[in-house]
Design goal:
single chain, alpha+beta, Alpha-Beta Plaits, Calcium-transporting ATPase, cytoplasmic transduction domain A, 5 domains, seven-stranded antiparallel sheet, seven-stranded mixed sheet, 26 helices, globular
Amino acid sequence: MPLIKRQKKRLMTVDLIHELPGRLRIRCGALKYLDEVQRDLVGGLVGHHHIQHVVYTPVTGSLLVFFDHTALSSAEILEIMEEHISRFALFAYEKEREETSTAPVSERRLQEESFLHILKRVAVSAGSLLLFGYVRTLRGHRLMGWKRVLLAPPAMVSIALSLPIFQSGLESLRRTGRPNADTLTSTAVITALLTGRSLSALVTILLADTAEMMTAYTMENTRKAIGDMLNVGDDDVFVLTPEGHLVQKPVSQVDIGETVSIQTGDKVSVDGIVTDGQAYIDESPITGEFFPVSKKTGEMVYAGTIVKSGQLRARVEHIGDDTTVARIVHMVENALGRKAQIQTYADRFSANLIPVNFGLAAIVYALTRDINRALGMLIIDFSCGVRLSTATALSACIHNAARNGVLIKGGNFVESMAEADSLILDKTGTITEGKPRVTSIHAAEGCSEKELLQAAAAAEEESSHPLAHAILDQVKRSGYTIPEHGMVEVVAGRGLTTTVDGERILIGNRRYMMEHGVDMEELRNAISSLEKKGEMIIYAARDSSLLGVIGIHDALKENMKKALNRLRNLGFDDVRLLTGDIAFQAEKVATRMHMDHFGAELMPEDKVKTVLEMQSHGAKVIMIGDGINDAPALAYADVGIAIGSTRTDVAIESANVTITNDDPLLIPSAVQLSRQTMSTVRDNFKMVVGINALGIVLSAVGWLPVVWGSVLHNSSTIFVVLNSGRLLFHDFRKRVLL
């Protein structure tokens, strides 16, 4: 991380270059990426009645517009151009992200290497280091000259282990003309061997392999979670033949246009349009809405969702990789591949300093012919301290966070979290508990609360609907028993009917009550109150007489509002709610939590678009969610945080940070720690560069003997480690000061 960071101009910022009557030129970073949509870009402007001609120059990112200045002012034309360019914001940002995420050098693809293979390399290098270190204390090597360098056992093991690294480093130089991380490691190994420090070479290899092993392990677990996620739906489905018969077929053999039959309890295996029937379907894996939605003829059903009650037939529209849930998986995979590493800067910085060390040593030796001065300058290198200044601080941060229930997947996400200024939250299971509960009970005259709950429980006893679970849990907590009842008749989208003591019991929504002639006027005020509070209302009746109403609500998570207040205090000035739930519920939550914006009834790709749009305007975004439907947005955000007792494995794998104990207050604590960590990294950089630069100057003028040069160099490393170690004692749960 640079000590002085240049402020990057926002992608969508429009600058006025010059203007004349009827002529105006602007420059915008986004215009450099819109060459592919030039026809739409220029055509949209030329189509304006008062714009006469447009000249687009993608190389410089500028637009020259000729217009009728008698009809429109320059300010009006500028506003029209800004609004038009903003329509291409997502396209421009994705192109910019693709360009910046493209590696400038050829790198090994660690995600293609086996974790076990790298683990074996780590075991060999660690075992060799221990063995040769012990042997070296017993006797010295008798080999001299180049033989001592190349034929010493530690050197031969180092060379054997380094062959893939050497090959990758040389390949990068051959293909791109630039060194990569493996070129740096190769240089460090060769330097150590040529100066007789074969054990140091083994240490370098061990550290490099350990980092690669952690990367490979993360990649394998991510691929496994994605693979599990693809196993949605049932393996076989029932297909309706032209003759009207149902035939069981594997999902892989189903064709688009065929009609499948889906029953209660089935997982939907295809994306399709309902052609017959009606059912309640749990779409929470896709939309995040915890209440099952009613599906009827003409509406869409999605693979990965579950039929809670009812039955339907659907015409297949998408199968396999074309389904919505499969597209979610691919979005996650693409985003994961674009993540940058904070260690890149330290690697490149130290890689650039290695030749500088050699060059300065050569110059000093050429001028003074004093080998001790040259050796002193070679011993004092920045590489070790620079890399440790980042690695030790990040390791201490990650360790402290993990100790407090926050799992951070890598040091790069510590930096991203420290720089974040915008926040997006899912609703169900993130802001709310994701477990609906009975919050209000209003019994009609002549009916007790006990009688009302028992009647409702009798009808809901066999149901798997979340609202049924809420009622049954309330009955259990109240110590009531569920009365014996007859068969339950389910009317999808309406309610349920059963019998208790020979009397018909109706449980359902307002429409269901109206269809059976139930008079609800008695509880009109109570019903209105529940509606204003945003509660889901369950009506209960005996024959045509209203027994009462039950209000069910998904409660806000404890401490979530306090956590958002602390994040505001840390400088988060844009806090948004994005949910697949209905607009009424989303607005209620957004208002109570004082959100800046909210979006409702969103699909996963809609959440991603919002993330990209915010990033295209310069925002550093943290996304917080818990479900499969949040996975793409978690992956595309600068930092994705998985939280919630209902969080899915895929959300955890897609997220960069996981809150393990479901405490929202850990979020601002993690942000605070990350900012403290990056401040420590900056201090470490200054310490390493300052101490070692002083050592090089003193060695060059002959004032610092070789042995003291080594002491000075290693002291900077020790100081860095000690300074970073302070993060282990950082009070993680310390409240943000107002």
